[in-house]
Amino acid sequence: MDSPAERLKAARAFRGVTQVELAKLSGVSQGSIGNVESGTRGFGRSGVALATALGVNAEWLVNGNGPMVKESYQATRVDQIDAAMQNLDAVLSVLTPGSRAMARDALKLYLDGQATEEEARAVLRACYSLAPKHETPAEERRSA
After folding, report:
1. In a 10 Å sphere around its CB, with 0-12 CB exposed, 13-18 middle and 19+ buried, how is residue 113 labelled?
2. How confident is the model over 13-35, as a mean pLDDT?
3. Measuring CA to CA, which residue among 29, 75, 69 is closest to residue 51?
4. Is the pLDDT assigned to residue 134 strictly greater than 70?
5. Domains of the chain: which residue ranges?
6. Which class is domain 4-63?
C-alpha cells in the first residue's frame, strides 16, 4: 500500500468502521477523512488521531513505515477484550437465564451488524427491567 488513501481505507476495513464512525471516534471530520481517502489531501495533523482511533501504528498510517498493528498493541487489545468479557459476565449474571440468553443474542446481532446499537440497547434495557432488584454497594453500606 503506497498511498495514505490506500492505508486509511485498509485500516478502516480492518477495524470494520465507516467514515462516519471513524469521524466520531477520532474527532476528525468525515469530509477530511473522505478527502484523504480520495487522495485530494494528506493527513496533516489528523494522522495521529485517526491512527489512535483505529488502533493502528501511526507511523504506518501516515508514512507507510512499520507494521500496520504493533504486536504490543495486539497483546494490550486482547487483554482489554478479556477484561471486558469478564465484566460482561458479571453484569449478565444478575439476569434470569432467559433474559441472559436474550441479552447475549442482542449483543451478538449488534456485533455481527444485524442490529443497530439502538435496537441492542432496547433489548438490554428490557432484560434488565426483568432482572431481580439488587442493592448497589452504596445502598448496602447505608442500610448497614
Report:
1. exposed
2. 91
3. 69
4. no
5. 4-63, 71-130
6. mainly alpha
C-alpha cell of residue 29? 471530520
Please report where in the chains the cell 495486539 appears, as a residue.
74
How far apart CA 22 and CA 32 sit, in angstroms, is 11
Asked if the model's pLDDT at residue 30 lies above 90, the reply is yes
**pLDDT of 144 strictly over 80:** no
- Residues whose CB is less than 8 angstroms from the CB of residue 1 and which lie 6 or more positions away in sequence, other chains included: 7, 10, 64
Backbone angles phi, psi at 57, to 5 degrees: -65, 120
For the stretch 111-126, pLDDT in tens is: 777 878 888 888 888 8
Backbone phi and psi for residue 43, each to the nearest 5 degrees, phi listed first: -75, -35
DSSP state of 133: P
Do 73 and 55 touch, CB atoms closer than 8 A?
yes
Average pLDDT, the chain: 79
